[in-house]
Amino acid sequence: MTRSSAPHLALLLPVLAFLTFSHARIPSRGSQTAFEVRNAFNDSAFRLPYAEARLSTFPDYSVQSLEAQQFPVLGAVDIQTRLLRFVMQPGSRLATQLHPRGNEVINVVRGAAKISFTFESDPSLATVLRRVTNVVRAREVALIPQGLVHDVECVSKVHPCILLSVANSADPGFVVL
Ligand SMILES: *[C@@H]1O[C@H](CO)[C@@H](O)[C@H](O)[C@H]1NC(C)=O
């Protein structure tokens, strides 16, 4: 044992170094299983602080983004999520938009938001459209199917709207019309 342990260790070290390095490639998908991607993250990777989220400020609304570029766990094979937190002034609206690669669930935390989306009413007649519109209030959730053009407007009279958006893709895409 004593005679052979030194050369074995010398052979093993580069292998261990490679395994450690390859495990650090987060969140590389390619040949990694969902388990391997998930298991490479430490516990705190699964707790996401909005305080550290990227903030974009516009004249009448702001949005904090929790995205895979900053929080790679969001790109894990079995997570695939993108989160946004909007604070919208009364009467403000987002640009008409769609997300080609993900559906969107919007939790209304505060205020009331008019949320609409449009799709073909008759698949054989592309010009016949159906518009779904709801005023969604605090403790209600709006569902926006993948790829559909939608509008979000804060219709509260006094208080800002607070909306939490969850997309079922780390890269849902964002197309403004
Ligand atoms: C978890 O991993 C992140 C990123 O690699 C690191 O910044 C953080 O300090 C780690 N946290 C703990 C508790 O090990």
Brief summary of the model shown:
It is found in: Secreted. Residues 63-172 form the Cupin type-1 domain. 16% of the residues lie in helices and 40% in strands.
Describe it for me?
The structure is a single chain. The protein has 2 helices and 11 strands, in the order H-H-E-E-E-E-E-E-E-E-E-E-E. Strand 1 (54-57) and strand 2 (61-66) form a beta hairpin. The longest helix is centred in the first third of the chain and has 23 residues, at 2-24. It is 16% helix and 40% strand. It has helices at residues 2-24, 34-39; strands at residues 54-57, 61-66, 82-88, 97-98, 104-110, 112-122, 125-137, 140-144, 149-154, 161-167, 175-176. It is of the alpha+beta class and 177 residues long. The strands form 3 sheets. It has a 6-stranded antiparallel beta sheet with strand order 1-2-3-10-5-8, with no helix packed on it. A 3-stranded antiparallel beta sheet has the order 7-6-9, with no helix packed on it. The chain binds 2-acetamido-2-deoxy-beta-D-glucopyranose. Residues 42, 44-45 line the site of 2-acetamido-2-deoxy-beta-D-glucopyranose.
